[in-house]
Amino acid sequence: MEIELVREHIKSLLDRSWNMAKASPVDAIAEAHQAENLALEIDDTFLVQQSRFNRSWCLLYTGKYHQALGLLLDLLPWYDDYGDSYWLSKMYNAIGYTQQRLSRFGEALESYWKAREHAINASNTAEIFTTTNNLASLEIEKGEYQIALQLIAEADKRMKQDVPDHLLADIRLNRCKAQIAVNDVSQGEINLRKVINFARDLDYKTLEFDGLITLAMIYSERGQEDEAMVSISEAMKLALSLANTDLVSIVYLRRAQVLNARNNVTEAIENLSKCLYFVDQRDNKVALDAHRLLSSLYKHMGNYRQALEHYHNGSQLEKNIFHTESKAQIEALQIQLQAEKRIRETQLARIRNKELNARNQQLEIINLIGREVASSLDIHRIIQTLHKHFAELMGVQILGVALINEQTQALDFKYFIEKDMMLESFSIPLDTHASYATYAVNTGELVFSNNAREDAYEYFGNVQDNIVQGSFIYVPLYKDDAVYALFTLQSNKIQAFKVAHIELVRSVSLFLSIAILNALTHQHIQTLTREIVKEKNEIAHLASHDRLTKLNNRIGLESHFDQLSSQEGIQFAVVYIDLDKFKPVNDQYGHEIGDEVLQILAERMRRATRRSDIAARIGGDEFVIILNGVSTEAEAQQIVMQLQEKLSSPISVRDLILKLEASFGIAFYPEHGHSLKAMLKASDEAMYRVKYRDDKEPPFAVAVDFDDKP
Fold it and tell me: Is 653 within 8 Å of 600 (Cβ atoms)?
C-alpha cells in the first residue's frame, strides 16, 4: 500500500513537472529529478524512464539541446524494447524537435515520420496532430511555406477531436508565420497578436517568445525599428526568465538585424558577437545568420580579413547544416513510404487472396523502383534505372524527363534515353500547338494514347505530320501544386500499353518527382558550393593584392615570404625598390596620371622577373621583389640592372612622355635576416645609401650587416 502511495506521489510530481516545463523549466527539472529518485527507490523502471523523459523536455525549454538529445537517445532503446507505439511516438517527436533546434533538418524529418508512423499505429489523435504540426514547423524553418500550409490544413481536420490548448497555440503560431511568409502580412499580424495573448494566458513562455520575435521582424520590415526594439526587449525578458541561452542568442541576432537597418554598424557587430557567445559553437542557423551578417558588415567597412574569417565560418556552418540534408530527406521519405506500404498491406489483407497477390506484386514492383530512384542524386542514373525496369515491364523504348524553363517559357527535353542511349537535349515552346507534351503540362493532366496519330483528331482537330505513330504516356510532375517537369514513356508500336500500366506509372511518378527534386537540389547545392569557393578565393585575392597594380600587397608578400623561408636550405634575395622623382609626377600632372604610371611600371616589373619571383607594392612608390634562388651579389646585380633598364625606359601616358628611374637595395636570406621585417629593414637601408647618388654611381647597394631584431 505504501509503494502505491509513492507511485501516486511520483505521478503527481511528473504531472506538475510537465505542466511547469513551458513556464518554469528550471523548477520543472527539480520536480522531475525528485520523481526519478523516488522511482529508483521503489525500483519502478517505467516511472524512472518517464521521469527522465520529462527532464529531457525541461532541458529542451532551457536551450540545452545537446544534453537533451543525449538523454533522449539513451532512453530510446528502453522504449523500443517496451514496444508501446504511443510512447515511441512521443519519443521520436521529442528527438525530432531537438534535432530541429540543432538545425539537423534531415534527421528531424526522419524522426518526425517515425513518430507519425507510431502515432498512426497507436491511433492517437493528439500525437498525430503533434507530429503534423512539427512537420509544418520544420518546413517553415526550411522556407517551404506552401508545404507547411498543406500540413497545417491536415492538422486542422484533426482539431474536431480533443487537442490540448498548448498544441492549438503551436499550430496557430505556425499558421501565422506561413501566412506572413506568403505575403498575407495583414491577416498574419492580426492572428499573431492573438496567439501571443493566448500564449500568455497559457503561461507558454517559449511560444510567447517566438511570437514576439516574429512580430519584431514584421515591425523591422516596415521600418518601425523602435517598435521592433520594444518587442525584442520583451522577448529578452522571457529568454532570461527561462534561463535559455539559445533564445538569448536569437534575441541578439534579431537586435543586430534591426540595428543594421538603422545603419548602426558598431552596435550591430557588438550584438552579433554576443549572439555567437551564447550560441556557444553550436552548428545552427542562428550562428550561420550571425556569421553571414558579420561578414557583410566587415566587408562594407573594408575589413576584409575579418570579413573573410566570418565568411569562411559561415560557409563551413552552411556545409555542416545543409550538405547532408538531401540524403537524410531521402531516408526520411523512404521511412514514410515503408509506413504507407504497411498501411496498404493491412488494408489489402481484407481483399480476396487472388487480388491480394496481384496487388502485392505491383506494390513490390513500385517500391523496388521507388527505392532505387530515391537512392540516387544523379538524374541520368535515375532515367537509366527507370528505362531498364519499364523496358522489361512494358516494352518501353523511349523514356525521359523534361523540365519546365520558366525564363524561356519552354519545355527542355534534357534527360531522355532510347535503347540504352542518352539522346541529345532539345526544347519546345510551352505554347506549341499539336504537342501532347505541352498539352499535358498546360492542363496538368496525365495523357495516355495507344495510337498517337489517330488520337490527334480528338486532341488537336486534325492529324499532324510531326506526330510520330506509336503509344505514349505523359505524366506531369508537381512541386507546390505547380507542374515543374514531365515524365514520359513511349513505344513506336501502337496498342503497346495496357490500362493497368497507367496506375503503375502514376505510382512510380510520385517517387520520381521526389527523386528529381532531390537531384535538382543536389545540383543547386553543388553550384552554390562552387560559387562560394570562387567568392572565397576572390576575397582572399583582394585581401592579399594591391588594387591599383594587381601586384601582391604586404599581406601577400608576408605569405610568400613565410612559405619560402619555411623550406630547409632555401636562399633568396629581397630587392627594395623606390621610384626616383615620382612625387613630382603626381604633383605636376595629378594622381590619375601617377596611377597610370604605377600600373605601367608594375607591368614592366612582372615581365622583367621570372615566374618563381614575387613582386609586391608595399607603399605609394615603394616595391619589393623576392628573387627566388638568387644567393650571390652578381646574380642579383644582373637582374637589378635589367629591372633598371626596363623601369627607366620612357613612359607614354596619354599625351605625355615621362622618364623615371629607381633606387635598389638588396638583402640576402638568411645572410641579412630571418624575418620579413629584418629583410625589409636591411634592403631599405641599402637602398637609401644610393637614393641620392651621382649619375655615375650604380643604382643599387647590398645590405651590410645582419639585423634580425624585432
Answer: yes
Helices then strands, counting H and E runs in the chain, come out as 27, 14
Cβ atoms within 10 Å of 203's Cβ, excluding its own: 14
- What residues does 325 pair with on adjacent strands? none
Find out whether the peptide bond into 77 is cis, omega within 30 degrees of 0: no
Residue 35 and residue 42 in contact, taking contact as beta carbons nearer than 8 Å: no
433-454 confidence digits (pLDDT tens): 778 898 899 988 898 888 888 8
Compute the radius of gyration of the chain from its Cα atoms.
35
Q: Count of CB atoms within 10 A of residue 273's CB? A: 13
Summarize pLDDT for 467-512 with one digit per residue, the tens.
788 898 999 998 888 899 999 999 988 888 887 788 888 888 888 8
**pLDDT value, residue 614:** 95
Contacts of residue 53, Cβ cutoff 8 Å, sequence gap at least 6: 72, 75, 90, 91, 94
- CA distances 501 to 341, 402, 452, 473, Å, are 19, 21, 17, 9
pLDDT at 201 over 80: yes
Buried b (16+ CB within 10 A) or exposed e, 17-40: bbebbbbbbeebbebbbbbbebbe
Q: Which of 364-369's residues contact partners 24+ apart within 8 Å by CB, and which partners?
A: 365/389, 365/393, 365/504, 366/504, 366/507, 366/508, 366/511, 367/337, 367/341, 369/508, 369/511
SS3 21: coil
Spatial distance between the Cα atoms of 123 and 653, rounded to a whole number of angstroms:
85
Model confidence at 411: pLDDT above 60: yes
pLDDT of residue 469: 81
DSSP secondary structure string for all residues of 497-562: --HHHHHHHHHHHHHHHHHHHHHHHHHHHHHHHHHHHHHHHHHHHHHHB-TTT-SB-HHHHHHHHH
| Cα 215 to Cα 212: distance, rounded to the nearest angstrom | 5
Angle between helices 591-608 and 633-647 (to 10 degrees): 140
- Give the three-state DSSP class for 447: strand
Residue type, 257: Q
Cell of 358: 496481384
- Evaluate whether 370 touches 451 at the Cβ level (below 8 Å): no
- Regarding beta strands 651-653 and 572-580, do their DSSP bridges make them parallel or antiparallel, or are they unpaired? unpaired
Rounded CA separation 374/338 (Å): 13
Please state whether beta strands 651-653 and 656-658 pair in parallel, antiparallel, or not at all (unpaired). Answer: antiparallel
Per-residue model confidence as pLDDT tens digits over 360-392: 566 677 777 777 777 778 888 888 888 888 888
Q: Please tell me the distance from the alpha carbon of residue 60 to that of residue 570, in angstroms, as a whole number.
A: 58
